[in-house]
Specification:
With 477 residues, this protein is of the alpha/beta class. Helix content is 33%, strand content 25%. The protein has three domains: 92 residues, 3-Layer(aba) Sandwich (Rossmann fold); 208 residues, UDP-N-acetylmuramoyl-L-alanine:D-glutamate ligase, CATH 3.40.1190.10; 152 residues, Protein-Tyrosine Phosphatase, Chain A (Alpha-Beta Complex). Strands 8-7-9-6-12-13-14-15-16-17 form a ten-stranded mixed beta sheet, with helices on both faces. The longest helix is centred in the last third of the chain and has 18 residues. The C terminus is likely disordered.
């Protein structure tokens, strides 16, 4: 693509995606005239775009491309047959994918740190950006979630560094390679490599190939931080040309030990090559977050940030929205939101919930919505993950008619497996039906963990309102 100069008109098709809306904000801050279009734009994205002063069209039309933009950015949710896509192709308009535009307009003159992996990349990117920001380095960043320490998921930054979440999902209908291959990383932090995105990857081997290609892009002068206690990660970084340091609990140059969780705070000791570095204290729960913080601290140390600055930043880090986020408590029942979209993420979320809410009964409400969780490839692993809860409700598979029955997750099989282990497990219908069915069984002190990568019909607030109504009725009686 030929990079347009600030002031030029850039139109984004599919602007309501998380990364696309962030790119729109970056472009606006850089001085471009930005417009966008999407089908069905809702808060919080619609609110963000309005606050940024970006004109957004609801739906797709050739008229949205008049007058002719200087560049059109096409999101990866768009495909042939979309009216605006067809107009771009017919009219030979200049177009690019989101990763291409990000690279050419924001990454060319920056030291780029890419955080990649099947799990944890949103949280690690958020921690790393906060450490750099707290150290006064004013980094640019783009994160696939909302860090609670920042008002937005992106910033152009005025400093040398740009920190971004490297997504392994495909780039666009005209580029089926992973997004992260466009970012020309100077450093890579690799959290994990597992089979995921079953809609675009055939098997684990295909996923590993994608990550090996990312590793192969890091220059000799670059740096990698990789998870030691993962055979797949070790395989992916084995032929790196740059220096690689590893992290883990039992293995790696960077190790965390003596993990203690008290009063909502997690403390642990850190060693680098068997030499004590000190202790870290964080507001996050779970061993997976110990590893997330450890890996971010290791990368920050490589860039010369002092241990004292790292320690303070991690103490102040508040987490990421939709990652074990408490949305409310009513009648002694706490309701928690989590983005868990894969059996491994569900398992780690529930392990962290047990640590964070000791003594409480754990309810897991699951909406199989991600392209991986909707499929039956992980039915057994899903049983193992959910067995950490005392009560489980699994909603119907999202858009189940768009999957062949032979490929589709069978919630009944998962529920049967859980019942065999003595777990109270039942099917769920709509959000309203689930709330009505579980409300009589909820008790003072329960923790309800809602897990979906979508809205789940607004079940969080519906449950809180129902609980509040129950209390009001009890008081009246």
């Amino acid at each position: 693509m030929i990079a347009p100069k600030p002031g030029a008109h850039i139109h984004l098709i599919g602007v309501a995606g998380t990364a696309m809306s962030a790119l729109a904000g970056l472009l606006k801050a850089r001085g471009y005239r930005v417009t966008g279009s999407d089908a069905g734009i809702y808060p919080p994205i619609s609110t963000l775009l309005h606050e940024l002063g970006i004109a957004v069209f609801d739906g797709y039309s050739a008229a949205h491309l008049e007058p002719r933009p200087d560049l059109v950015v096409i999101g990866n949710a768009l495909s042939r047959g979309n009216e605006e896509v067809e107009t771009v192709l017919d009219g030979k308009l200049s177009y690019a994918s989101m990763p291409e535009a990000l690279r050419e307009l924001f990454l060319q003159d920056r030291e780029t740190v890419v955080v990649a992996g099947t799990h944890g990349k949103t949280t690690v990117t958020s921690i790393l950006a906060w450490i750099f920001e707290s150290a006064g380095l004013q980094p640019g960043f783009l994160i696939g979630g909302i860090p609670l320490n920042f008002s937005r998921s992106f910033a152009s930054g005025s400093g040398k560094y740009f920190i971004l979440e490297g997504d392994e999902y495909d780039t666009a209908f005209f580029d089926k390679g992973p997004k992260f291959l466009h970012y020309r990383p100077d450093s890579v932090l690799l959290t994990s490599v597992e089979f995921d995105h079953a809609d675009i990857y055939a098997d684990l081997s295909a996923v590993k190939t994608a990550f090996k290609r990312l590793v192969n892009l890091v220059p000799r002068r670059g740096w990698m931080i990789a998870k030691a206690e993962s055979e797949t990660v070790r395989e992916c970084v084995a032929r790196a040309f740059c220096t690689v340091e590893t992290f883990g609990l039992e293995q790696g140059e960077w190790r965390a030990s003596d993990i203690r969780f008290t009063g909502g705070i997690t403390n642990f000791a850190v060693k680098h090559r068997d030499q004590p570095k000190g202790h870290l204290s964080m507001q996050l729960s779970g061993e997976h977050n110990v590893l997330n913080v450890l890996s971010a601290a290791a990368m920050a140390q490589h860039y010369g940030i002092s241990w004292e600055q790292i320690t303070r930043a991690i103490e102040d880090f508040r987490g990421v929205r939709r990652r074990l986020e408490v949305v409310g408590e009513e009648h002694g029942v706490v309701v928690v939101d989590d983005f868990a979209h894969h059996p491994t993420a569900i398992r780690e979320t529930l392990r962290a919930a047990v640590a964070r809410f000791p003594g409480r009964r754990i309810w897991a409400l699951v909406e199989p919505r991600s392209n991986t969780l909707r499929r039956n490839v992980f039915e057994k692993q899903l049983v193992d993950a959910l067995a950490l809860a005392q009560h489980v409700v699994i909603a119907e598979v999202y858009n189940k008619d768009k999957l062949a029955e032979s490929e589709r997750l069978d919630p009944g099989q998962v529920l049967a497996g859980l019942r065999q282990r003595g777990i109270a497990a039942e099917p769920g219908g709509s959000a309203d039906q689930i709330v009505s069915s579980i409300l009589p069984s909820l008790e003072l002190g329960d923790a309800v963990i809602v897990m979906s990568n979508g809205g789940f019909g607004g079940i969080h607030q519906k449950l809180l309102r129902a609980l509040a109504g129950t209390r009001a009725t009890t008081v009246a009686e």
